[in-house]
Amino acid sequence: xxxxxxxxxxxxxxxxMLLNSITKDRISHAYLFQGQRGTGKYELSKLFAKxxxxxxxxxxxxxxxxxDCHRIDSxxxxxxxxxxxxxxxxxxxxxxxxxxxxxxxxxxxxxxIYIIVDADKMTTNASNRLLKxxxxxxxxxxxxxxxxxxQSILQTIRSRCQIMALQPLNPIHFEKKxxxxxxxxxxxxxxxxxxxxxSDAIEINTDEWFANARKIVVQLIEVLQAKPDEALLFINNxxxxxxxxxxxxxxxxxxxxxxxxxLIYHDVGNEQSIxxxxxxxxxxxxxxxxxxxxxxxxxxxxxxxxxxLDQNVHPTLVMEQLTLQIQx
Length: 328
Hints:
The chain is built from 16 helices and five strands. It is α/β, with parallel strands linked by helices. Strands 2-3-4-1-5 form a five-stranded parallel β-sheet, sandwiched between helices. Helix 6 (124-135) links the parallel strand 3 and strand 4 (141-147). Helix 5 (92-102) runs parallel beside helix 6, helix 11 (208-226) packs antiparallel against helix 12 and helix 11 packs across helix 13. The chain is elongated. The chain starts with a helix and ends with a helix.
């Protein structure tokens, strides 16, 4: 997303606010961009930086052709500094280095920008150092803090930032984007439920593991309906050998949720929302065995299983309990 017009299709409200601040020369000294992964926080920060530095911008829109624009795109602009987590966290030393850099005069102008990616991962000491930095803002300094979890950032830091809440991506818009990449409609619907990041979705789609994961979910449904006595055996021999870590287990449970949602969509006549369109016959058969009430209870059970996984309950135990709950 290299233009405000492109960004406005994804984040219309935030794009309008930032563009207005540029055209009216009312740029704040600090912004907090909060939103889920894939909502465009990083792209937004780069676009905003280009609009600030570009000498050939028109109505706030950067030219995307000049030296400043190219260097910001390639992360080589001398007056645009980025901080990313060093391992699992952003450390005090990184903020101290940033402060030192900002004591120097800008190499090409007095304007300086710093972008902190995953700002919620700052250590306590790093947060306190940044707070001191924010308390004495330079008129020509602009900070952009990017986060998926703003509540993990000190309230005193949040209060000194102009908060820009990025909205979740429109699922239909996201599915169309995936289909433009050559991904089938059914697959795009499934991927949109797993991630709202285009790159992640494309990577998942090309992974053979994902294709097999979909098959195993459908097979589990068949076993639960036709051979319920073999369900626990299937979990141990098939499910747990494929979904080996917690991230994979979460994806498997998300796919299982989609199946039971499809049952409800079929029951209420909302066929256009069904995701597993190539398995419509199986969905019809499932709806004959499981009522809408049962499907709803299964969804609650799956959400509880996901919560237990996050609490580090043993994965096999979680899946066995879930299987028994669905069978009831």
